[in-house]
From TrEMBL:
<dbReference type="GO" id="GO:0016255">
    <property type="term" value="P:attachment of GPI anchor to protein"/>
</dbReference>
<dbReference type="InterPro" id="IPR019540">
    <property type="entry name" value="PtdIno-glycan_biosynth_class_S"/>
</dbReference>
<feature type="transmembrane region" description="Helical">
    <location>
        <begin position="517"/>
        <end position="539"/>
    </location>
</feature>
<dbReference type="Pfam" id="PF10510">
    <property type="entry name" value="PIG-S"/>
</dbReference>
<dbReference type="GO" id="GO:0006506">
    <property type="term" value="P:GPI anchor biosynthetic process"/>
</dbReference>
<feature type="transmembrane region" description="Helical">
    <location>
        <begin position="20"/>
        <end position="37"/>
    </location>
</feature>
<keyword id="KW-1133">Transmembrane helix</keyword>
<comment type="similarity">
    <text>Belongs to the PIGS family.</text>
</comment>
<keyword id="KW-0256">Endoplasmic reticulum</keyword>
<comment type="pathway">
    <text>Glycolipid biosynthesis; glycosylphosphatidylinositol-anchor biosynthesis.</text>
</comment>
<dbReference type="GO" id="GO:0042765">
    <property type="term" value="C:GPI-anchor transamidase complex"/>
</dbReference>
<keyword id="KW-0337">GPI-anchor biosynthesis</keyword>
<keyword id="KW-0812">Transmembrane</keyword>
<protein>
    <submittedName>
        <fullName>Phosphatidylinositol glycan anchor biosynthesis class S</fullName>
    </submittedName>
</protein>
<keyword id="KW-0325">Glycoprotein</keyword>
<keyword id="KW-0472">Membrane</keyword>
Amino acid sequence: MAAAAAAAADEAERARGRRAALSFAAIAVVLGLPLWWRTTETYRAALPYADIDGLGQLPFQLAVPVAVVFAPGAVPGDLPKALPFRDVQEMEISVNLRTSITSRYEMIYRSTTAQEEAALHVATAQEADAALRPLQDASLGALTMYVVPETSSLLPQGISVYVGKHRGALVRAGGGLAALRTRLRQLTQVMSFTASSIAAALSDRVPDGQLGPDARRHLKSSLGYEITFSLLNPDPKSHVVDWDIEDAVSRYVQPVLDKLSLVANFSVDSQILYYAVLGVTPRFDKESSSFLLSAHSLPHVINPVEARLGSSAASLYPVLNFLLYVPERSHSPLYIQDKDGAPVSTNAFHSPRWGGIMVYNVEAPASPQASLPLHVDVDMVRVMEVFLAQLRLLFGLSREELPPEFLLESPGSEGLADWELDRLLWAHTVENIATVSTTLTSLAQLLDKIGNIVIKDDVASEVYQAVASAQSAMARLAKGHLHSAFQASKEAVTSSERAFFDPSLLHLLYFPDDQKFAIYIPLFLPMAVPILLSLAKIVRETRQRKKEPTKMD
């Protein structure tokens, strides 16, 4: 009996051990592993991957509202309908297989109102342009074409199209409806966008062979720009240079920047650098008794000078450098030559996406015994004319070659016409949308490739906001709302850059999965070994009991 009791007690103890081992194993598997996995997993908020991929394939539709206003005596006899009526002209712009652009010119044909007719009864086209401005649609991107009789004296002899400073133009009638439509098509492209300007805005998507030579010379679209005017005086012992840069910026540059403030934020500063040389030794020409800088040596001028500027190192935005160089006395006068060896009339050159340099020669003193240093007063009017022309080139506002019957009015003190501002906004809006698509696509590919980067909710929110703003910009472009489309594209760029450059999206902040297991295995293995050994013992005992014959009474 004692032996039987001892065997029963031993069996009960084994049963408790088996239950304890199974309980620990169940707790580890059912609670421990899920809890560990949950507490160590990488949090990744959901992102709109399909919408991001779709941004690169959405078709661009650029709608331009155009009002064609006929003055009395200028209505063609072959109009298809009686005035007023609407017409839509479309044109496809080929970019690549994934991107298609359709330009839609929504034409409204009508007659002049009494006020417009009175405004056209002036002596010159300039006066008509000024008088018609309050009567036009002031919306950004909206154009108004006034068709005047063929015998009208508003346009000079030999001129068929006059483009004013605002968003209006005068077109001479004649040749029927077909000839008029040809002029209007050329005119709308001049005042809005062309295939080349849109291709330049989408230069990252266009094959190199399809781009023009100047496609990548313009400044990339940015939320802000910094402009630095620098006076380089390499020989302060010979020249004391005085330039009234503050007054010059206020009178000549600020009106242009005020108009461009819709495009981006601008900051302006200036500096004077002494003993700063160009880094290229000019060649002395005996015939002209002057020093020359050839065209092939100009690219080597910028790098040594840029090292002295020091403005782009701490800047968040692109820096536009405008340098006025007063050559030292030993290298005066100094002239710049073009590729053909002829002297450049402005004695200046510009570097795409960087800025420009102008050489300002100082007249030699009448007497060799003149005391040094010479006092030099810089003619800021001449200097600013050059710098403003270079600024236009940097923003792609150079006026294209036009037929001889086209006359473009000078923008005057404002530096650019209203339609030129619209032209810049069309290009920058398209470029912003393309930049957002590229940025978000790169971000999505990065996060998809590296699975252990945390995607926080605020990052996901910025991505969703960027996608929504880009889609909104494209929808507004299709409706011809240029201003709101550009603002939406800027919001999309801001959100996409915030998401892309968020500090939490740094791969080195997180452990890879193999390191995670390497850290936790030494902790879990000592606890798991007894449980595993107990489970193995239970399995052996269970198998052994099944093999033992059942005792029969």
